[in-house]
Write a structure and sequence with these properties.
Radius of gyration: 24 Å
Strand order of the largest sheet: 10-9-11-13-14-8-15
Order of helices and strands: HHHHEHEHEEEEEHEHHEHEHHHEEEEHEH
Number of strands: 15
Helix content: 25-40%
CATH architecture of the largest domain: 2-Layer Sandwich
Strand content: 15-25%
Shape: globular
CATH class of the largest domain: Alpha Beta
Distance between the termini: 44 Å
Largest sheet: 7 strands, mixed
């Protein structure tokens, strides 16, 4: 083992231990040394992570034998030793995101899990050190090429940070040392913020759950795995890296992109996109019963509620209201890709035709069935592929304004808001008892004042409204409508993020 400034830390770990334990610690760090081929600063940073975790374990009564077993450097794989870079083209949905950024805006989303106990930062950091190797497109930085942006893998060490700022501040993608995601902890909460270019909600949730699973394993809670919770020591599978947009055989149809402009919610736009965050926590069975009463699904019911609230928060009396609804394409073919594989449609209603839930919920149910069907979504995918081919040899500095016109869905004025439903989150039995709930936040894209998301876990469903305005009328209208339907709601405000 090399002599360096880390020797004092390692000697401190061995203080008061018997000779056998000291030899195990020396062997552990010698093994760690063999798994690393980094410059001295990065190497010392990684050693620091393991020293901090050792301190935690020893302070909490773990034996050295248990510690070296839990943190066996073999869990690092070759990630920090193989300096070979890999390159990935952005998937067809992701290509547009770097092109469309302007004025400090960035398409970000955030997934959070609240656990039952306070987070141990040093253990979460080692869990991240072990997890990242399993997700090569997440362990990459976005680079600018002559014609397109692309992903380049890096051995930079992803750091876990204490949350001290507002959620979803733009991430720099210019400097090489910056990734396209961030990991935070706060009390019992683990949060990951993603630049939409690397993944969608499904891929992001798999990454979050795999990190939590590894964190729990390091706390000596045995884990099992599933399709949505990966064993981070398994080899990466090719099916997880697929750009599924290239596999569609549908005929292109530019009409699938064309929507009329939407009326916008009232309220002055603030400089901070995540100005207010409001969580509506409800019993999933209550929601299902009410949706069934209106002959609709859960998504159709909440869409109808948002249309009702929108009508009461828009001054105009004539015009169209569009609410964007993402569609997870994996449900059609069972794809395992961790990259973007979602399309969207706009649920639409003339504002003067928005009447009551009895009429709206069946209408939303029908629009979901018609507009979100596989044939239409595949046509949009085919159109996207053909647009990319048409722009392929256009230099990137010319492509930016062209792409903003060609990709109709970049015109955020065509929607008033968005409702994204991640559905029911299921995890293995060994993991479930340690998790309280999940949250899903989506940054509003200007000129939109609000976005809404849904995520369910066990018997609870959480509707989250993210605001780019301090005007509270919209969320108050949503609350009023839900209460009038008899729902029992526990409200949580943005103060918990601002404390």
């Amino acid at each position: 083992m090399r002599k360096n400034e880390y020797d004092p830390k390692i000697r401190k770990l061995k203080g008061g231990l018997n000779e056998k334990d000291c030899k195990m610690i020396d062997a552990f760090f010698a093994s760690l040394e063999e798994k690393i081929d980094l410059n001295i600063l990065k190497r010392n940073l990684l050693f620091d992570h393991f020293c901090n975790a050792f301190d935690y374990y020893l302070d909490h009564g773990y034996s050295v034998k248990e510690i070296v077993s839990l943190m066996d450097p073999e869990h690092l794989g070759s990630f920090y030793k193989d300096n070979k870079r890999s390159y990935f083209s952005l998937d067809n949905a992701a290509i547009v995101y770097p092109l469309g950024m302007k004025y400090g805006q960035m398409p970000l989303f955030r997934l959070s899990a609240d656990l039952k106990e306070d987070i141990v930062p040093s253990i979460l950091q080692v869990a991240m050190d072990f997890t990242i190797k399993r997700f090569p497109t997440f362990s990459a930085v976005i680079k600018t090429g002559l014609f397109w942006h692309y992903l380049e893998t890096t051995s930079n060490i992803p750091l876990v940070e204490e949350e001290k700022d507002i959620p979803c501040k733009p991430i720099s993608i210019i400097l090489r040392s910056f990734r396209s995601f961030r990991v935070f902890y706060y009390k019992k909460r683990i949060s990951i913020e993603y630049f939409h270019a690397i993944t969608d909600g499904t891929g992001g949730m798999i990454f979050l759950n795999s990190l939590i699973s590894e964190y729990l394993r390091l706390l000596n809670h045995p884990q099992t795995y599933a399709d949505n919770v990966l064993n981070v020591d398994e080899e990466v599978k090719e099916e997880e890296l697929v750009n599924e947009f290239r596999n569609t055989t549908a005929v292109k149809d530019f009409n699938t992109f064309l929507d009329k402009s939407s009326l916008q919610l009232d309220g002055k736009l603030e400089k901070i996109e995540m100005k207010r965050i409001i969580h509506f926590d409800m019993d999933i069975d209550e929601v299902k019963q009410i949706a069934k009463k209106y002959d609709g699904s859960v998504t159709a019911y909440f869409l109808a509620v948002l249309f009702m609230a929108s009508k009461n928060c828009i001054s105009a009396k004539k015009g169209l209201v569009n609410i964007q609804v993402p569609v997870n394409m994996r449900k059609f073919n069972g794809s395992k890709t961790l990259r973007n594989y979602s399309m969207y449609f706009s649920a639409s209603k003339e504002i003067n035709e928005i009447s009551d839930l009895k009429e709206l919920v069946p209408d939303m149910k029908q629009q979901i069935l018609e507009k979100g069907r596989e044939e239409i979504m595949n046509q949009m995918m085919a159109t996207t592929e053909n647009l990319i081919k048409a722009l392929f040899h256009v230099p990137i500095f010319l492509k930016i304004p062209v792409a903003q016109i060609a990709y109709g869905y970049l015109g955020n004025s065509i929607i008033a808001s968005c409702l994204s439903n991640l559905g029911q989150i299921k995890v293995p039995e060994g993991m479930e008892p340690y998790i309280s709930h999940y949250d899903f936040l989506l940054v509003p894209a200007r000129p939109n004042r609000a976005t809404s998301t849904l995520v369910s876990f066990r018997d609870r469903i959480r509707l989250t409204i993210t605001k780019a305005t301090v005007d509270t009328k919209y969320e108050e209208e949503v609350y009023r409508i839900l209460k009038e339907d008899g729902l029992h709601i526990r409200l949580e405000g943005s103060e918990e993020y601002e404390s």
